[in-house]
């Protein structure tokens, strides 16, 4: 639906079904704090990307970026956008607050445990994170059932959260496989702890039958492609038409995109885990889904009534452009019999970096400059409509700062990519510094938005009328 216009303000999505801003805003702020920490990790330990290796620092940094930054922002956006997209109320805001508490506690605990490679505590904190995801799944599932709208948007959201649940379960299984269970013999047979430990030991034995690095790759693709990329693609079919004053041009294409992405991912994670040569086929299915997505995206852009693209939308589209080099790298890395050399290892690093910071993070920044101003505007100015002139959403942040932050971010990506390909820790570190500068510029802009929450900028209606 197009934005509605009020005196002095342009309002984005309909507020009729939107929940209170408390939960999504706190999720987003926590996510931004985690992003700052992840960039700090990269600057302090550039070998995370400049060399191909698997250790606790790589795993800790990856989970801080994925679960702390990306997942937190995605969770906050889901609680805000799912009711709007499905045109119904969120099932329970209390469950959303409980999820927030679990997220804020579990992510730092997991990152600390990974950093010190204490897999037992990873399981403990990971279980808390899993409980939060379970609350999200329950909350969104009942919201979808309440809406009774089985369209590609609801199916895409539901399948993405289902993949996230499987990702968490797989991660806990991998952590269980790296723990020892010698203490079971000292516990009585009926002891609940003994029963739990025997179950974990059985899971460990099952996981040990597979190649561990293959399982790690499968686990990563479950989360990154199955949850985050699928959600970005799905929600873009709702948000882009809304912000561009356009509409979906062919709903069948959306069904094909969602269906092919899910089918391709299912085959990909299985063939990855089993080291099957059929992995290339399912990579091709996912690439076919993205090609159909590109056709529909182009059609939506051509049909738009708003000719100019603002800075946040351009930022979002820059993020989507990262799908092109990612698809090329995926085809190379999926090739049967590809040997693991120093160079192919760096290509894997590049593939992961492009997914996390090239595609997902850039797209999230673009959407944050749409979502965050709306959240603050709705919580601050909605009660003043008709009684005072309130700012428009675009007046709550600086477009020039968005452009400066975007340009600095792009420079950082280029430098880090060169550092990865050349195995240069120095280049990665300087790219990390530039990345930190880009995040700081965006942070200043977010502070400008949040300032409206602390100091509302209201003008008398008479002044607005006199100036027209």
Architecture blueprint of SSEs:
Elements: E1 4-6, E2 9-11, H1 22-44, H2 47-50, H3 56-86, H4 93-115, H5 119-147, H6 152-177, H7 192-207, H8 212-244, H9 251-274, H10 279-302, H11 311-321, H12 323-333, H13 342-381, E3 388-389, H14 399-421, H15 425-454, E4 459-460, H16 461-466
Antiparallel strand pairs: 1-2, 3-4
Helix pairs in contact: 1-3, 1-4, 1-15, 3-4, 3-5, 3-8, 3-13, 4-5, 5-6, 6-7, 6-8, 6-9, 8-9, 8-10, 8-13, 9-10, 10-12, 11-13, 12-13, 13-14, 13-15, 14-15
Characterization of the model:
This protein is mainly α and 468 residues long. It is 76% helix and 2% strand. It is built from 16 helices and four strands. It has a two-stranded antiparallel sheet with strand order 1-2. The chain is globular, with a radius of gyration of 23 Å. The relative contact order is 0.11.
Would you identify the regions where 5 or more consecutive residues have pLDDT less than 50? 1-11, 464-468
- Number-wise, the strands total 4
Rg, alpha carbons: 23 Å
| Morphology call | globular
Query: What is the distance, rounded to the nearest whole angstrom, between the alpha carbons of the first and last residues?
Result: 28 Å
What does the largest sheet look like?
A: 2 strands, antiparallel
Mean pLDDT: 87
Helix content: over 70%
The number of distinct helices, counting runs of at least 4 residues, comes to: 16
Strand order of the largest sheet: 1-2
> Secondary-structure element sequence?
EEHHHHHHHHHHHHHEHHEH
Q: Structural class from helices and strands?
A: mainly alpha
